[in-house]
UniProtKB/TrEMBL annotation:
Keywords: Developmental protein, DNA-binding, Nucleus, Repeat, Transcription, Transcription regulation. It comes from Nicotiana attenuata. Residues 9-61, 62-116 form the HTH myb-type domain. SUPFAM superfamilies: Homeodomain-like (SSF46689). This is Transcription factor myb39.
Length: 415
DNA sequence: AAGACTAGCAACCGCAGAATA
DNA sequence: GTATTCTGCGGTTGCTAGTCT
């Protein structure tokens, strides 16, 4: 498949943008919308390629961009999402209102990554570096399985980001088609792209679905394995674009054959208290640095021994009186779900699943919601502090999911 | 005071996937 | 079904300002 360069580079300017160029680009987009980026430079009188214009707009000129120092909360968000998503900056940016993927990427590379390294935490795995030495024991296997599970959530976040993009496209397309309307000047003095999104955002539905899915008890997964979840009028089983119907190829998921031969999916919200999210969490940099100092003495934490069984094919774990075995291939089948659904209540499953995640994760030097590490020091294996440690770790994961739940993409820069 | 070094960030590059002809 | 175009993404580069020696 042939692919032409984004622009013929002859006579086109490169390098830093001048205020005059910025002004031209801003003026043109405010008046006409960006439309086709390729055609834009000529129309706007710029000696730049369309790609360069798009980057300048999305990373710098767009009016809904927040610039300046990252707050502690934003830092935590980045770290937590990075632990789940890796270098998927655009997906991370979806959950950081008014920050661009480029800015987040730069911030990660120049600040956060270095801090983690200083603390002895591998910025790729988000685990203490000496963990990598434990390559041949069960812990590494646990970690692998944990990451397997994380992929599940990763896939969901990715899909959500995708939906956000789609919504954005729809929104932009609407805006472009009605640019001459008075809404432009009333809703935003600076840009038409600040206009509110017209029409319902499917992303919101998805988030609501995510939040509300546990209202459907586990045992409603019937003998036929069908579980249909309808939230806010969106029948997820029938929605071809629903996040809940999208999976990363490699991501594990719980798949139950739907009535019509399709699949439906049950997602699990990790319930429980999220330790007080720093409300209004805008902190100045000094405070932020202080918190980071406290964070630093934790990297000696080790993974607790995970006493329940994990092997290549399944994961077994104990929660209270209940033993549970789940297959660890790429899908959790209706059969496995069904049988286990008979064993446990939804809340117990959540608890159990969360425990599984957390027991593999404790002592990783990850941030708790208040910006300090959940220092579990390998004690979660069953001593007196186990439940407390487990709670801390649960809070960590809950904070991630709460963060996802609470940050409506409609607040994000994508809109 | 001046040169060397470093950190931060804007911008570029190339690839991939979606959309379109 | 294929070729082409468009857009988005992530990695990388290179410039600039600040700091150190």
């Amino acid at each position: 498949m042939g692919r032409s360069p984004c622009c013929d580079k002859v006579g086109l300017k490169k390098g830093p943008w001048t205020p005059e160029e910025d002004q031209k680009l801003l003026a043109y987009i405010e008046e006409h919308g960006h439309g086709s980026w390729r055609a834009l430079p000529a129309k706007a009188g710029l000696q730049r390629c369309g790609k360069s214009c798009r980057l300048r707009w999305t990373n710098y000129l767009r009016p809904d961009i927040k610039r300046g120092k990252f707050t502690l909360q934003e830092e935590q968000t980045i770290i937590q999402l990075h632990a789940l998503l890796g270098n998927r900056w655009s997906a991370i940016a979806t959950h950081l209102p008014k920050r661009t993927d480029n800015e987040i990427k730069n911030y990660w590379n120049t600040h956060l990554k270095k801090r983690l390294l200083k603390m002895g935490i591998d910025p790729v795995t988000h685990k203490p570096k000496n963990d990598t030495l434990l390559s041949n024991d069960g812990q590494s296997k646990n970690s692998a399985n944990l990451s397997h599970m994380a992929q599940w959530e990763s896939a969901r976040l990715e899909a959500e980001a995708r939906l956000v993009r789609q919504s954005k496209l729809r929104s932009n397309s609407f805006q472009n088609s009605s640019f001459a309307s008075q809404e432009f000047t009333t809703s935003s003095p600076s840009s038409p792209l600040n206009k509110p999104v017209v029409g319902p955002s499917r992303c919101l539905d998805v988030l609501k679905a995510w939040n509300g899915v546990w209202t459907k008890p586990m045992n409603e997964i019937t003998a036929s394995g069908s579980a249909t979840i309808s939230v806010t009028g969106l029948d997820l089983e029938e929605s071809p674009t629903s996040t809940l119907g999208y999976f990363d190829q490699n991501a594990p998921h719980i798949s139950t054959p739907g009535i019509n031969g399709g699949n439906s999916t049950v997602l699990f919200e990790f319930v429980g208290n999220s330790s007080g999210s720093s409300e209004g969490g805008i902190m100045n940099n000094e405070e932020s640095e202080e918190d980071w100092k406290g964070f630093g003495n934790s990297s000696t934490g080790q993974l607790p021994e995970y006493k329940d069984g994990i092997n290549e094919n399944s994961v077994s774990f104990t929660s209270g009186l209940q033993d549970l075995t789940m297959p660890m291939d790429n899908t959790w089948t209706a059969e496995s779900l069904k049988s286990n659904a008979e064993q446990i209540s939804p809340a117990n499953f959540v608890e159990t699943f969360t425990d599984l995640l957390l027991s593999s994760n404790s002592g990783d030097g990850v941030l708790s919601e208040n910006g300090t590490e959940s220092d579990n020091g390998g004690e979660a294996g069953g001593n007196g502090n186990a439940s407390e440690n487990c709670e801390d770790n649960k809070n960590y994961w809950n904070s991630i999911f709460n963060l996802v739940n609470n940050s409506s993409p409609s607040d994000s820069a994508m809109f």
